[in-house]
């Protein structure tokens, strides 16, 4: 292996370092609102990482920022690096190339992201024909094979159909097929099973996981379902109020969480082996990043944490690495596992 290839292997495929994002508030001149605040996350080649948190925690906004899909007027802080390149420094053409060749995204609702007046074939072959100069007939041959890989038989007929003729589960498979056709290094899956029934959810996640392993893709899975992420991913990163509060191996986090919020999420899951009349819940409500900044100088989770002490309300914890390699933002992290 050459020194250049060794350096490339050592470079994370995706690295977010102190990443934050804020947007202007409509009708309030000069006022900005923080949506994401200091996210630190590293993703290796071929690795699957789950980004988990309640609605409003900033996880989807973080994923979209990786390919430059930020709201109008957004201002970013920190860095997002893909394969050693600063994404924030990319111009229009380079950013389009990143989306077309290196990073692809599976969105929550395929019906909102597939043009309803164009055929499935047009949707699947457009990037191959326009970006990679593949002949139309060859592009169709390739995508028919990919449709078979994601569990859609009779691909030639499906290419002639329109989105309204397919069920939600089939349409999400079409979305995944379009991602695989681009042959990316990284797939961003933003709540890919939200709009599907339970059976379709498991099938779609199985397809994504199998495709990742077979093709050596890296996967960043955005979800509020901690159990789903733990079953699919190598590592988990938990977000709260716009920042990452804990990152560790999936199996270790589900058995020994080190942040009270992670522990609360795990306790609130239904169990197949234990009977409970009422599930434990985390008291209070989740707060967005801008609320955390406006309301308290301490830990954003402190008002909901049963183990918070006075220091937690006065001092915002920095994310730090513990002796066992776990990264956590909690003043009392060493004690959490014993509670």
Automatic annotation (TrEMBL):
Any one Gene Ontology molecular-function term assigned to this protein's record: ATP binding
Domain ABC transporter: 16-266
PANTHER family: DIPEPTIDE TRANSPORT ATP-BINDING PROTEIN DPPD, OLIGOPEPTIDE TRANSPORT ATP-BINDING PROTEIN APPD
Keywords: ATP-binding, Cell membrane, Membrane, Nucleotide-binding, Transport
InterPro entries: AAA+_ATPase, ABC_Ni/Peptide_Import, ABC_transporter-like_ATP-bd, Oligopep_ABC_C, P-loop_NTPase
Similarity field: Belongs to the ABC transporter superfamily.
Domain of life: Bacteria
Taxon lineage: Bacteria, Bacillati, Actinomycetota, Actinomycetes, Kitasatosporales
Classification via Gene3D superfamilies: P-loop containing nucleotide triphosphate hydrolases
Membrane topology: Peripheral membrane protein
UniProt name for this protein: ABC transporter ATP-binding protein
Primary location group: membrane
């Amino acid at each position: 292996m050459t020194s250049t290839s060794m350096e490339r292997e050592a470079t994370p495929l995706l690295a977010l370092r102190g990443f934050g994002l804020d947007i202007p508030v409509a009708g309030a001149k000069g006022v900005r609102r923080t949506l994401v605040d200091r996210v630190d996350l590293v993703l290796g080649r071929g690795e699957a990482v789950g980004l988990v948190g309640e609605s409003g925690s900033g996880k989807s906004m973080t994923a979209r920022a990786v390919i430059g899909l930020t709201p109008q007027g957004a201002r970013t802080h920190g860095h997002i690096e893909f394969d050693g390149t600063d994404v924030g420094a990319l111009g229009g053409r380079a950013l389009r190339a990143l989306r077309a060749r290196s990073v692809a995204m599976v969105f929550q609702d395929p019906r909102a992201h597939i043009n309803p007046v164009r055929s499935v074939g047009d949707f699947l072959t457009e990037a191959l024909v326009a970006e990679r100069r593949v002949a139309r007939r060859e592009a169709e041959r390739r995508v028919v094979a990919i449709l078979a890989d994601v569990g859609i038989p009779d691909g030639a007929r499906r290419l002639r159909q329109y989105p309204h003729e397919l069920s939600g589960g089939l349409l999400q498979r079409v979305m995944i097929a379009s991602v695989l056709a681009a042959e990316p290094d990284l797939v961003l899956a933003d709540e890919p099973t939200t709009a599907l029934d339970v059976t379709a959810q498991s099938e779609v996640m199985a397809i994504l996981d199998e495709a990742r392993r077979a093709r050596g893709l890296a996967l960043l899975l955005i979800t509020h379902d901690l159990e789903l992420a733990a079953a699919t991913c190598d590592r988990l990163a938990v977000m709260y109020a716009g920042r990452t509060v804990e990152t560790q191996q999936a199996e270790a986090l589900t058995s020994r969480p080190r942040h009270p919020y992670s522990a609360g999420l795990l306790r609130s899951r239904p169990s197949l082996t234990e009977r409970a009349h009422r599930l434990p819940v985390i008291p209070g409500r989740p707060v967005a990043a801008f609320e955390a900044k406006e309301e308290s100088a301490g830990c954003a989770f402190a008002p909901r944490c049963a183990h918070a002490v006075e220091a937690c309300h006065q001092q915002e914890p920095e994310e730090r690495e513990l002796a066992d390699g776990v990264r956590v933002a909690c003043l009392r992290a060493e004690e959490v596992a014993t509670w």
